[in-house]
Amino acid sequence: MLLQSLRKCARALSTAAPSTVASTSPYPFSSVAKFPAVPATPPPAPLLQGKGLMPYLTQTLPDPAKQKLLTTYFSRRHPLRILPGSVLSVTLGHAPTTFSGVLMSVRRRGLDTSFVLRNVISRTGVEMQFYVASPHLRDIKIMQRAGGGGGKAGRRMRRAKLYYLRDSPEKMTAISAGVRA
Predict the structure, then answer these.
(1) pTM for the whole thing?
(2) I need a surface site. Which of 33, 60, 122, 147 has the fewest CB within 10 A?
(3) Residue 85 and residue 105: Cα distance in Å, rounded?
């Protein structure tokens, strides 16, 4: 008797609570499932026919902060773009909470844009790949830019992918000299 009442309580608790999203009509096969409200502005007519879907999605899916990162730091032509050889510090929503290293490569694929950072931690090379549109990525801080003018901006690397730094740790430490976070 007690076991049956516990099962009923567990079953009642395990089912999803009614959603707070405004619903137009309940799902005909379940009283718990709800439909989200219809958006205020309908999509343009060509989009309903399936034309221009990907550009529409790339502009509406990411949140504005991620969209700004994609259009400034990871653009091909923007003056504030990040070049390989820059030293970055990335803040994440999970462990490790921060990771700083030399930007080795940028892979530009729209929303799937990613970059690879490398650092030497206790005499072991560590590389991490980060996706720009990932919800785990909180912030990107530029510690030192790899610029074109030399001086304070740093030396410009002549390659797009700096994978040769894996084999020469002395060049790697020369790039990130004095930068610790």
Answers:
(1) 0.67
(2) 122
(3) 9
Which residues are registered as beta bridge partners of 162?
none
Tally Cβ neighbours within 10 Å of residue 105.
Answer: 17
Distance from C-alpha of 30 to C-alpha of 34, rounded to nearest angstrom:
9
DSSP H helical ranges for the chain: 2-14, 45-48, 53-60, 64-71, 169-175
Q: What is the side-by-side strand order in the sheet with 114-121?
A: 124-131, 114-121, 98-107, 87-92, 137-144
Max intra-chain CA distance, the chain: 80
Place of tokens 């650092």: 119
CA 60, CA 172: separation in Å to the nearest integer? 38
How many whole angstroms separate alpha carbon 140 and alpha carbon 14? 39
Ranges assigned E (strand) in 132-176? 137-144
How far is Cα 70 from Cα 108, in angstroms, rounded to an integer? 9
Tell me how crowded residue 68 is: count the other CB atoms within 10 A of its CB: 11
Look-up: residue for tokens 């060509």? 46
